Automatic annotation (TrEMBL):
Keywords: DNA-binding. It holds the Pfam family MazE_antitoxin. Residues 8-53 form the SpoVT-AbrB domain. It comes from Haloterrigena gelatinilytica. It comes from the Archaea. Signal peptide: none annotated. GO terms for biological process: intracellular phosphate ion homeostasis; negative regulation of phosphate metabolic process. This is AbrB/MazE/SpoVT family DNA-binding domain-containing protein.
Amino acid sequence: METRKVQVTGGSTFTVSLPKSWATDNDVSSGTTVEFYPEGDSLLLTPQSETDRQTGTLDVTDLEGERLTRAVMTMYVSGFDIIRLSAGRITTDQRSAIRSATQSLVGVEVLEETTDSVVIQDLLDSSELSIVNAVSRMRLIARAMLEDAVTALVENDDDIAQDVIERDDDVDRLWQVVSRIFRATLRSPRAAEELGVPREDCFDFHSSARQLERVADHAAKISNLALKLEAIPGDVADALVALHDDVADVIEKSMDALVAEDSDEATDLGHAAREAILEIDEHTRTIDDMLRELEPVQAQSLGLIVDSLSRSADYGGNIAETALQKAAPRP
């Protein structure tokens, strides 16, 4: 840390000098334009950023399959708009993994292919993306997935179960978008300003999006188990539907608290969601007692489903905790 004294020039202009080492490291010299971003009682200064799209290069010679897919996703989340993947020769399996990655991301397409490289590009304008809208969309999909997963189970409907499993990819794509936006706000004050959301709030939305992504994963898990189960007893089905309704209520209250503009309303909803989890814990114990009367294999699968619903409630509780922190007074 370095300190500087504020001086007055011309009778009305406040000036402060910049540390020479910082200026040198960031190519700031006489005539360079810098940007100021007020943030509460802080003032952030940064060299004027370039508007050119960010290009990244990755050597994929030793990467295949899931590792290559994950590497492409990481480059995307890190903020690169154009990603050049190169090797001595791009194999057929590598091209397949790259296509799989592009299909798992929003707005990304293959721009160019040659023997030794593949170039993919993000076609979306990052300044037009909204972290709030992306999280809201995740909320709607995850909520519907969880409801449909339980419906598929109690109605023994394989078509609904399969549809839920496929929708998990939609939530994953939105999660990648949220992560990309959040990282951009950490790197650049301009990104946060264009987004119109304080960086602390961006953290809260990013954290909550992670919880919604996990809820969607459990909905897909329930659906996979539903595909293997035959019809279940009516009393167990009714109990699972009731448990789902309680879990969905926790998630809804938590998300309402997160987006509430009034801090008192957010606090009331957040506490209500957290308190409801205690009742869900009691509800799950009751269902576990019912499962002891069933055939062991069926009871084990249904026990995993109860656990997924219980965990989904816990994820809702995590969102409620985030909402409470977001609504609390800030120093």
